[in-house]
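sanity check this:
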Amino acid sequence: MQGKPVRNSLVEMIQMVRPEDANPLGIAFGGKVVAWMDMAAAISAMRHARIPCVTASIDSLGFLSPIHIGEFAIIRAQVNYTGKTSMEVGVTIDVEDPLTGIRKRTTSGYLTFVALGQNGHPVQIAPIIPETPEEQRMYEEAQRRREEKLKRRGESI
């Protein structure tokens, strides 16, 4: 199966935080932020696989700073690593002040997706091809995370 470049999986979505997205303090609900991340990651995974993909796990998630009502949440996702039927998608959220344009990182995480065939069972996907030094670094880090995850899974059985 021929590989595909990381850039083909890149997704960027922008959400303006509205009052219904936030708690009484005016800060976006964590669950809403996770839903945005999952949606961007799912689109990224499907752009790579070109078949339906489902969330298998949220492997890492960090809230670094809050996102407030009226701010723009810029969600970026891309496939970092592929296995036989699964892939790691890295997601970041930067907040942008709509009046100044100043951005800062607020959230980051890694999600694992599995590609499913018509019968609902996992199917093989094309390998990801890192093209830049940054993509190669992310690929290698994702590979290490996968090895650690598999090691932990084996220890818990």
Remarks:
- Residues 51 and 115 are 7 Å apart (CA to CA).
- The chain has one domain: 4-156.
- The longest strand covers residues 103-115.
